[in-house]
Design a protein that fits this description.
Helix content: 25-40%
Shape: globular
Structural class: alpha/beta
Number of strands: 22
Number of helices: 14
Strand content: 15-25%
Protein backbone atom coordinates (compact mmCIF):
# COMPACT_ATOMS: atom_id res chain seq x y z
CA UNK A 1 0.00 0.00 0.00
CA UNK A 2 1.43 3.37 -1.07
CA UNK A 3 2.33 5.91 1.58
CA UNK A 4 -0.07 8.82 1.96
CA UNK A 5 1.27 12.01 0.33
CA UNK A 6 3.32 14.26 2.58
CA UNK A 7 2.01 17.83 2.47
CA UNK A 8 4.49 20.70 2.72
CA UNK A 9 4.48 24.41 1.98
CA UNK A 10 7.79 24.05 0.16
CA UNK A 11 9.89 21.21 -1.21
CA UNK A 12 13.56 21.96 -1.82
CA UNK A 13 15.34 19.65 -4.29
CA UNK A 14 19.04 19.51 -3.47
CA UNK A 15 20.77 19.97 -0.12
CA UNK A 16 23.84 21.94 -1.20
CA UNK A 17 24.79 25.48 -0.13
CA UNK A 18 21.83 26.86 -2.04
CA UNK A 19 19.22 24.30 -1.03
CA UNK A 20 19.98 23.91 2.66
CA UNK A 21 20.30 27.67 3.14
CA UNK A 22 16.91 28.16 1.47
CA UNK A 23 15.40 25.43 3.66
CA UNK A 24 16.75 27.00 6.85
CA UNK A 25 15.47 30.46 5.93
CA UNK A 26 12.07 29.01 5.02
CA UNK A 27 11.97 27.31 8.42
CA UNK A 28 12.77 30.65 10.05
CA UNK A 29 9.85 32.14 8.12
CA UNK A 30 7.50 29.52 9.54
CA UNK A 31 7.09 27.42 6.41
CA UNK A 32 6.81 23.63 6.50
CA UNK A 33 9.68 22.30 4.38
CA UNK A 34 10.88 19.01 2.90
CA UNK A 35 14.55 19.01 1.84
CA UNK A 36 15.36 16.28 -0.69
CA UNK A 37 19.00 15.19 -1.02
CA UNK A 38 20.20 12.05 -2.82
CA UNK A 39 23.57 11.88 -1.03
CA UNK A 40 24.71 14.04 1.90
CA UNK A 41 23.33 17.34 3.20
CA UNK A 42 25.78 20.05 2.23
CA UNK A 43 26.06 18.89 -1.36
CA UNK A 44 29.26 18.85 -3.38
CA UNK A 45 30.66 21.99 -1.75
CA UNK A 46 30.55 20.78 1.82
CA UNK A 47 31.22 17.08 1.23
CA UNK A 48 33.50 16.83 -1.80
CA UNK A 49 34.47 20.34 -2.90
CA UNK A 50 34.94 23.66 -1.09
CA UNK A 51 35.44 22.41 2.46
CA UNK A 52 37.48 19.22 1.98
CA UNK A 53 39.73 20.92 -0.58
CA UNK A 54 40.42 23.83 1.77
CA UNK A 55 41.15 21.41 4.61
CA UNK A 56 43.78 19.63 2.50
CA UNK A 57 45.13 22.93 1.15
CA UNK A 58 45.61 24.09 4.74
CA UNK A 59 47.52 20.89 5.55
CA UNK A 60 49.70 21.24 2.45
CA UNK A 61 50.54 24.85 3.24
CA UNK A 62 51.40 24.02 6.85
CA UNK A 63 53.56 21.10 5.67
CA UNK A 64 55.47 23.35 3.28
CA UNK A 65 55.94 26.05 5.91
CA UNK A 66 57.29 23.54 8.41
CA UNK A 67 59.78 22.20 5.89
CA UNK A 68 61.09 25.74 5.36
CA UNK A 69 60.90 26.93 8.98
CA UNK A 70 64.66 26.89 9.63
CA UNK A 71 65.12 30.23 7.86
CA UNK A 72 63.06 31.92 10.60
CA UNK A 73 64.78 30.08 13.43
CA UNK A 74 62.52 27.06 13.92
CA UNK A 75 64.14 23.66 13.56
CA UNK A 76 61.76 20.92 12.48
CA UNK A 77 63.28 17.48 11.93
CA UNK A 78 61.87 14.49 10.08
CA UNK A 79 58.95 16.40 8.59
CA UNK A 80 56.68 13.98 6.74
CA UNK A 81 53.13 13.91 5.44
CA UNK A 82 50.76 11.06 6.27
CA UNK A 83 47.88 11.48 3.83
CA UNK A 84 45.84 8.76 5.53
CA UNK A 85 45.79 10.80 8.74
CA UNK A 86 45.22 13.98 6.75
CA UNK A 87 42.20 12.40 5.09
CA UNK A 88 40.85 11.29 8.45
CA UNK A 89 41.14 14.86 9.75
CA UNK A 90 39.44 16.17 6.60
CA UNK A 91 36.58 13.71 7.06
CA UNK A 92 36.19 14.90 10.64
CA UNK A 93 35.94 18.51 9.48
CA UNK A 94 33.28 17.62 6.92
CA UNK A 95 31.30 15.50 9.38
CA UNK A 96 31.28 18.28 11.97
CA UNK A 97 29.87 20.76 9.46
CA UNK A 98 27.33 18.43 7.82
CA UNK A 99 26.08 17.36 11.25
CA UNK A 100 25.68 21.00 12.20
CA UNK A 101 23.66 21.75 9.07
CA UNK A 102 21.41 18.73 9.64
CA UNK A 103 20.77 19.79 13.23
CA UNK A 104 19.93 23.33 12.16
CA UNK A 105 17.44 21.99 9.62
CA UNK A 106 15.79 19.63 12.07
CA UNK A 107 15.65 22.32 14.74
CA UNK A 108 13.54 24.44 12.40
CA UNK A 109 11.27 21.57 11.46
CA UNK A 110 12.82 20.95 8.04
CA UNK A 111 12.21 17.30 7.10
CA UNK A 112 15.21 15.79 5.28
CA UNK A 113 14.28 13.14 2.71
CA UNK A 114 17.10 10.95 1.38
CA UNK A 115 16.47 10.14 -2.26
CA UNK A 116 16.03 11.32 -5.84
CA UNK A 117 13.21 13.67 -6.77
CA UNK A 118 10.96 13.44 -9.82
CA UNK A 119 8.20 15.97 -10.53
CA UNK A 120 4.93 14.16 -11.30
CA UNK A 121 2.72 17.27 -11.53
CA UNK A 122 3.29 21.00 -10.97
CA UNK A 123 2.43 20.47 -7.28
CA UNK A 124 3.60 16.94 -6.56
CA UNK A 125 7.00 15.30 -6.48
CA UNK A 126 8.01 11.69 -5.93
CA UNK A 127 11.10 10.98 -3.85
CA UNK A 128 12.68 7.60 -4.55
CA UNK A 129 15.01 6.26 -1.89
CA UNK A 130 18.05 4.06 -2.45
CA UNK A 131 16.12 1.10 -0.95
CA UNK A 132 13.52 1.31 -3.70
CA UNK A 133 10.83 2.93 -1.60
CA UNK A 134 9.10 6.14 -2.61
CA UNK A 135 7.49 9.08 -0.84
CA UNK A 136 5.12 11.52 -2.53
CA UNK A 137 5.26 15.14 -1.46
CA UNK A 138 2.55 17.63 -2.33
CA UNK A 139 3.68 21.25 -2.16
CA UNK A 140 2.68 24.85 -2.76
CA UNK A 141 6.13 26.00 -3.86
CA UNK A 142 9.31 24.22 -4.90
CA UNK A 143 12.96 25.25 -5.12
CA UNK A 144 15.21 23.36 -7.52
CA UNK A 145 18.83 23.38 -6.35
CA UNK A 146 20.22 20.33 -8.15
CA UNK A 147 23.68 21.80 -8.77
CA UNK A 148 26.08 20.74 -11.50
CA UNK A 149 28.36 17.88 -12.54
CA UNK A 150 31.87 17.63 -14.04
CA UNK A 151 32.09 17.94 -17.83
CA UNK A 152 33.75 15.12 -19.73
CA UNK A 153 35.57 15.56 -23.04
CA UNK A 154 36.16 13.05 -25.85
CA UNK A 155 38.85 10.52 -25.02
CA UNK A 156 38.83 11.30 -21.30
CA UNK A 157 35.96 9.43 -19.69
CA UNK A 158 36.14 9.67 -15.91
CA UNK A 159 36.71 6.20 -14.45
CA UNK A 160 37.82 7.18 -10.94
CA UNK A 161 41.22 5.51 -11.37
CA UNK A 162 43.21 6.70 -14.37
CA UNK A 163 40.98 9.63 -15.29
CA UNK A 164 39.53 11.31 -12.22
CA UNK A 165 37.50 14.36 -11.22
CA UNK A 166 38.10 16.64 -8.25
CA UNK A 167 36.01 14.44 -5.95
CA UNK A 168 38.35 11.49 -6.56
CA UNK A 169 41.49 13.63 -6.24
CA UNK A 170 40.46 14.91 -2.82
CA UNK A 171 40.16 11.37 -1.45
CA UNK A 172 43.67 10.12 -2.24
CA UNK A 173 45.57 8.62 0.68
CA UNK A 174 48.82 8.71 -1.30
CA UNK A 175 50.04 11.54 -3.50
CA UNK A 176 50.65 10.47 -7.10
CA UNK A 177 54.18 10.83 -8.44
CA UNK A 178 52.97 12.52 -11.63
CA UNK A 179 49.66 14.15 -12.49
CA UNK A 180 48.42 15.75 -15.69
CA UNK A 181 45.61 18.26 -15.22
CA UNK A 182 43.34 18.98 -18.17
CA UNK A 183 42.01 22.47 -17.53
CA UNK A 184 43.82 25.39 -15.91
CA UNK A 185 40.79 26.82 -14.14
CA UNK A 186 40.06 27.17 -10.44
CA UNK A 187 39.68 23.48 -9.59
CA UNK A 188 42.68 22.36 -11.60
CA UNK A 189 45.04 24.99 -10.21
CA UNK A 190 43.95 24.52 -6.59
CA UNK A 191 44.43 20.76 -6.71
CA UNK A 192 47.61 21.01 -8.76
CA UNK A 193 49.30 23.32 -6.25
CA UNK A 194 47.97 21.21 -3.36
CA UNK A 195 49.67 18.03 -4.58
CA UNK A 196 52.79 19.82 -5.78
CA UNK A 197 53.43 20.61 -2.12
CA UNK A 198 53.19 16.90 -1.37
CA UNK A 199 55.90 16.18 -3.96
CA UNK A 200 53.81 15.44 -7.05
CA UNK A 201 55.16 16.49 -10.45
CA UNK A 202 52.36 18.54 -12.01
CA UNK A 203 51.60 19.31 -15.66
CA UNK A 204 48.69 21.55 -16.66
CA UNK A 205 47.10 21.67 -20.12
CA UNK A 206 44.88 24.69 -20.77
CA UNK A 207 43.07 25.25 -24.06
CA UNK A 208 42.97 29.05 -23.77
CA UNK A 209 45.90 31.47 -23.71
CA UNK A 210 46.02 32.04 -19.95
CA UNK A 211 45.48 30.24 -16.67
CA UNK A 212 42.20 31.01 -14.87
CA UNK A 213 40.48 32.14 -18.10
CA UNK A 214 38.54 35.35 -17.65
CA UNK A 215 40.67 36.50 -14.71
CA UNK A 216 42.62 39.78 -14.73
CA UNK A 217 45.67 39.47 -17.01
CA UNK A 218 48.08 40.65 -14.29
CA UNK A 219 46.87 37.89 -11.98
CA UNK A 220 47.10 35.22 -14.69
CA UNK A 221 50.66 36.32 -15.49
CA UNK A 222 51.68 36.28 -11.82
CA UNK A 223 50.18 32.80 -11.43
CA UNK A 224 52.34 31.59 -14.32
CA UNK A 225 55.39 32.93 -12.47
CA UNK A 226 54.28 31.10 -9.32
CA UNK A 227 53.92 27.89 -11.33
CA UNK A 228 57.44 28.23 -12.76
CA UNK A 229 58.83 28.72 -9.23
CA UNK A 230 57.13 25.50 -8.19
CA UNK A 231 58.28 23.67 -11.34
CA UNK A 232 54.70 23.15 -12.48
CA UNK A 233 54.72 22.70 -16.25
CA UNK A 234 51.98 24.66 -18.03
CA UNK A 235 50.93 24.26 -21.67
CA UNK A 236 48.71 27.17 -22.75
CA UNK A 237 46.68 27.31 -25.98
CA UNK A 238 46.99 23.53 -25.92
CA UNK A 239 44.69 20.53 -26.17
CA UNK A 240 44.85 17.03 -24.66
CA UNK A 241 43.99 14.73 -27.57
CA UNK A 242 43.94 11.33 -25.87
CA UNK A 243 45.90 8.91 -23.72
CA UNK A 244 47.26 5.39 -23.70
CA UNK A 245 48.33 3.20 -20.81
CA UNK A 246 51.86 1.78 -21.05
CA UNK A 247 54.25 0.09 -18.65
CA UNK A 248 55.77 3.36 -17.43
CA UNK A 249 52.46 5.19 -16.97
CA UNK A 250 49.75 7.00 -18.87
CA UNK A 251 50.99 8.59 -22.09
CA UNK A 252 48.96 11.70 -22.91
CA UNK A 253 49.14 13.21 -26.39
CA UNK A 254 49.07 17.01 -26.11
CA UNK A 255 48.84 19.43 -29.01
CA UNK A 256 50.70 22.66 -28.21
CA UNK A 257 51.53 25.79 -30.26
CA UNK A 258 55.02 24.29 -30.76
CA UNK A 259 53.74 20.91 -31.89
CA UNK A 260 52.62 17.69 -30.26
CA UNK A 261 54.23 16.53 -27.02
CA UNK A 262 53.91 13.31 -25.07
CA UNK A 263 53.36 13.71 -21.32
CA UNK A 264 53.80 10.65 -19.11
CA UNK A 265 51.86 10.64 -15.85
CA UNK A 266 50.26 8.33 -13.30
CA UNK A 267 46.81 9.92 -13.25
CA UNK A 268 44.82 12.44 -15.27
CA UNK A 269 42.64 15.01 -13.49
CA UNK A 270 39.83 16.31 -15.68
CA UNK A 271 38.79 19.83 -14.64
CA UNK A 272 37.36 21.52 -17.71
CA UNK A 273 34.22 22.86 -16.09
CA UNK A 274 30.83 21.78 -14.83
CA UNK A 275 27.43 21.33 -16.43
CA UNK A 276 24.08 22.29 -14.77
CA UNK A 277 21.79 19.46 -13.59
CA UNK A 278 18.49 20.84 -14.83
CA UNK A 279 17.47 17.69 -16.67
CA UNK A 280 16.41 14.39 -15.13
CA UNK A 281 14.03 15.57 -12.41
CA UNK A 282 10.89 15.86 -14.54
CA UNK A 283 10.83 19.63 -14.96
CA UNK A 284 10.12 19.46 -18.69
CA UNK A 285 7.18 17.17 -17.99
CA UNK A 286 5.44 19.84 -15.90
CA UNK A 287 6.24 22.75 -18.21
CA UNK A 288 9.35 24.27 -16.63
CA UNK A 289 11.74 25.54 -19.29
CA UNK A 290 15.21 23.94 -19.27
CA UNK A 291 17.72 25.01 -21.92
CA UNK A 292 19.87 22.73 -24.08
CA UNK A 293 22.77 22.89 -21.62
CA UNK A 294 20.61 21.83 -18.69
CA UNK A 295 20.34 25.29 -17.13
CA UNK A 296 17.03 26.64 -15.85
CA UNK A 297 16.21 30.25 -16.83
CA UNK A 298 14.88 32.36 -13.95
CA UNK A 299 13.81 35.96 -13.31
CA UNK A 300 15.09 38.32 -10.61
CA UNK A 301 12.89 36.59 -8.05
CA UNK A 302 14.48 33.24 -9.05
CA UNK A 303 11.16 32.04 -10.48
CA UNK A 304 11.15 29.62 -13.41
CA UNK A 305 8.62 29.59 -16.24
CA UNK A 306 6.19 28.24 -13.62
CA UNK A 307 6.12 31.08 -11.04
CA UNK A 308 5.57 28.82 -8.01
CA UNK A 309 8.70 26.80 -8.86
CA UNK A 310 12.05 28.46 -8.21
CA UNK A 311 15.61 27.52 -9.19
CA UNK A 312 18.91 28.54 -7.57
CA UNK A 313 22.64 27.84 -7.63
CA UNK A 314 24.68 26.12 -10.33
CA UNK A 315 21.55 24.85 -12.07
CA UNK A 316 20.63 28.40 -13.14
CA UNK A 317 24.08 29.01 -14.63
CA UNK A 318 27.31 30.86 -13.89
CA UNK A 319 29.03 31.99 -11.84
CA UNK A 320 29.17 28.56 -10.22
CA UNK A 321 29.91 29.71 -6.69
CA UNK A 322 28.66 28.34 -3.38
CA UNK A 323 28.06 31.80 -1.91
CA UNK A 324 26.12 32.85 -5.00
CA UNK A 325 23.89 29.79 -4.53
CA UNK A 326 23.39 30.66 -0.86
CA UNK A 327 22.40 34.23 -1.70
CA UNK A 328 19.94 32.99 -4.30
CA UNK A 329 18.54 30.53 -1.77
CA UNK A 330 17.86 33.37 0.65
CA UNK A 331 16.17 35.43 -2.05
CA UNK A 332 13.94 32.56 -3.21
CA UNK A 333 12.96 31.76 0.38
CA UNK A 334 12.12 35.40 1.13
CA UNK A 335 9.98 35.67 -2.02
CA UNK A 336 8.09 32.49 -1.07
CA UNK A 337 7.67 33.97 2.40
CA UNK A 338 5.90 36.99 0.89
CA UNK A 339 8.80 39.43 1.17
CA UNK A 340 9.45 42.04 -1.59
CA UNK A 341 12.87 40.55 -2.43
CA UNK A 342 14.79 40.28 -5.71
CA UNK A 343 18.25 39.06 -6.65
CA UNK A 344 20.09 42.34 -7.20
CA UNK A 345 23.75 41.70 -6.46
CA UNK A 346 26.12 44.40 -7.72
CA UNK A 347 29.33 42.71 -6.59
CA UNK A 348 29.87 38.94 -6.54
CA UNK A 349 33.30 38.06 -5.13
CA UNK A 350 35.26 34.99 -6.16
CA UNK A 351 38.23 33.31 -4.49
CA UNK A 352 40.85 30.86 -5.71
CA UNK A 353 42.88 29.03 -3.06
CA UNK A 354 46.10 28.67 -4.98
CA UNK A 355 49.39 29.82 -3.48
CA UNK A 356 49.33 32.80 -3.46
CA UNK A 357 45.59 33.10 -2.94
CA UNK A 358 43.53 35.01 -5.47
CA UNK A 359 40.32 36.95 -4.94
CA UNK A 360 38.41 39.23 -7.27
CA UNK A 361 35.25 41.30 -7.29
CA UNK A 362 33.64 43.55 -9.86
CA UNK A 363 35.28 44.21 -13.21
CA UNK A 364 38.85 43.55 -14.21
CA UNK A 365 40.62 46.24 -16.20
CA UNK A 366 39.97 44.26 -19.39
CA UNK A 367 36.27 43.75 -18.54
CA UNK A 368 35.74 47.44 -17.89
CA UNK A 369 37.35 48.49 -21.17
CA UNK A 370 35.25 45.95 -23.09
CA UNK A 371 32.14 47.47 -21.50
CA UNK A 372 33.11 50.95 -22.65
CA UNK A 373 34.53 52.41 -19.44
CA UNK A 374 37.54 54.71 -19.41
CA UNK A 375 39.57 53.44 -16.50
CA UNK A 376 42.53 54.11 -14.29
CA UNK A 377 44.16 51.70 -11.85
CA UNK A 378 46.17 51.60 -8.67
CA UNK A 379 48.45 48.76 -7.62
CA UNK A 380 50.24 47.99 -4.37
CA UNK A 381 52.66 45.05 -3.89
CA UNK A 382 52.55 42.93 -0.74
CA UNK A 383 56.36 43.15 -0.77
CA UNK A 384 55.86 46.72 0.51
CA UNK A 385 53.45 45.68 3.28
CA UNK A 386 54.97 45.62 6.75
CA UNK A 387 52.60 42.88 7.86
CA UNK A 388 53.32 40.73 4.81
CA UNK A 389 57.09 41.13 5.22
CA UNK A 390 56.88 40.24 8.92
CA UNK A 391 55.18 36.93 8.07
CA UNK A 392 57.31 36.10 5.04
CA UNK A 393 54.31 36.10 2.69
CA UNK A 394 55.16 38.86 0.22
CA UNK A 395 54.10 37.45 -3.13
CA UNK A 396 51.34 39.29 -4.98
CA UNK A 397 49.55 42.61 -5.04
CA UNK A 398 46.28 44.50 -4.69
CA UNK A 399 44.91 46.18 -7.79
CA UNK A 400 41.97 48.60 -7.94
CA UNK A 401 40.12 49.57 -11.11
CA UNK A 402 38.14 52.83 -11.22
CA UNK A 403 36.28 54.96 -13.76
CA UNK A 404 37.89 58.14 -15.01
CA UNK A 405 35.97 61.26 -14.14
CA UNK A 406 33.62 59.74 -11.56
CA UNK A 407 36.32 57.84 -9.63
CA UNK A 408 33.72 55.08 -9.14
CA UNK A 409 35.29 51.85 -7.92
CA UNK A 410 34.65 49.22 -10.62
CA UNK A 411 36.68 46.26 -9.44
CA UNK A 412 39.41 44.96 -7.16
CA UNK A 413 41.80 42.09 -7.75
CA UNK A 414 43.96 40.68 -4.96
CA UNK A 415 46.69 38.07 -5.24
CA UNK A 416 48.53 37.34 -2.05
CA UNK A 417 48.17 36.30 1.60
CA UNK A 418 44.57 36.10 2.87
CA UNK A 419 43.23 37.46 -0.42
CA UNK A 420 39.93 35.59 0.05
CA UNK A 421 39.34 37.39 3.35
CA UNK A 422 40.51 40.80 2.17
CA UNK A 423 38.14 40.91 -0.80
CA UNK A 424 35.04 41.43 1.35
CA UNK A 425 35.92 45.07 2.05
CA UNK A 426 36.09 45.71 -1.69
CA UNK A 427 32.83 43.83 -2.24
CA UNK A 428 31.02 46.06 0.25
CA UNK A 429 32.58 49.16 -1.32
CA UNK A 430 31.35 48.26 -4.82
CA UNK A 431 27.93 47.18 -3.53
CA UNK A 432 27.53 50.60 -1.89
CA UNK A 433 28.74 52.55 -4.93
CA UNK A 434 31.94 53.77 -3.26
CA UNK A 435 34.65 55.74 -5.03
CA UNK A 436 38.30 54.82 -5.01
CA UNK A 437 38.82 57.75 -2.61
CA UNK A 438 36.43 56.16 -0.13
CA UNK A 439 38.81 53.22 0.15
CA UNK A 440 41.83 55.49 0.34
CA UNK A 441 40.36 57.76 3.02
CA UNK A 442 39.23 54.90 5.27
CA UNK A 443 41.68 54.41 8.14
CA UNK A 444 43.02 50.85 8.27
CA UNK A 445 44.72 49.34 11.33
CA UNK A 446 48.48 48.89 11.30
CA UNK A 447 50.21 46.58 10.76
CA UNK A 448 47.69 44.59 8.70
CA UNK A 449 47.34 43.14 5.24
CA UNK A 450 44.20 45.24 4.73
CA UNK A 451 46.36 48.36 4.58
CA UNK A 452 47.38 47.14 1.12
CA UNK A 453 43.83 47.77 -0.12
CA UNK A 454 44.04 51.35 1.13
CA UNK A 455 47.50 51.81 -0.40
CA UNK A 456 46.34 50.47 -3.78
CA UNK A 457 43.52 53.02 -3.72
CA UNK A 458 46.05 55.74 -2.83
CA UNK A 459 48.33 54.54 -5.64
CA UNK A 460 45.51 55.11 -8.14
CA UNK A 461 46.00 58.84 -7.48
CA UNK A 462 49.77 58.68 -7.09
CA UNK A 463 49.60 59.08 -3.32
CA UNK A 464 50.65 55.70 -1.92
CA UNK A 465 53.08 56.06 0.97
CA UNK A 466 54.93 52.77 1.01
CA UNK A 467 55.63 52.22 -2.69
CA UNK A 468 56.93 54.30 -5.57
CA UNK A 469 54.10 56.15 -7.31
CA UNK A 470 53.74 57.18 -10.90
CA UNK A 471 54.95 60.67 -11.71
CA UNK A 472 52.40 63.51 -11.47
CA UNK A 473 52.20 63.71 -15.27
CA UNK A 474 51.52 59.97 -15.51
CA UNK A 475 48.75 60.26 -12.95
CA UNK A 476 47.26 63.22 -14.79
CA UNK A 477 47.25 61.31 -18.06
CA UNK A 478 45.75 58.24 -16.37
CA UNK A 479 42.84 60.33 -15.14
CA UNK A 480 42.27 61.77 -18.57
CA UNK A 481 42.57 65.39 -17.48
CA UNK A 482 45.03 66.42 -20.24
Amino acid sequence: MANAPMKKDVVVIGGGPGGYVAAIRLGQLGKSVALVEKEQVGGVCLNWGCIPSKALIHIAKLYEEMKNAEEIGITCKNIAIDLKKAQAWKIGVVKKLTTGVSQLCKGLGVEILKGTADFETPNRVSVKGSNGGAQTVEFTNAIVATGSRPIEIPGFKIDGKQVVDSKDALDWTEAPNRILIVGGGVIGMEIGMLYQKFGTKVTVVEMLDQLLPGTDADIAQFLMIACRKREITVHLSSKALGWEKKKDGLHVNVETPKGKVNVVCDVILLSVGRSPNGKGVGLERIGVRVDAKGAIPVNQKLQTSLPHIFAIGDVVGPPLLAHKASKEGLVAAEVIGGKPEVYDVQAMPAAVFTDPEIATVGMSEEDAKRKGYSTFTGKFPFAASGRAVSTGATEGFVKVVAEKGTNLLLGVQIMGPSAADLISEATLAIEMGASVEDLALTVHPHPTLSESVMEAAEAAHGKAIHTVNRTPSQVTRAHGTV
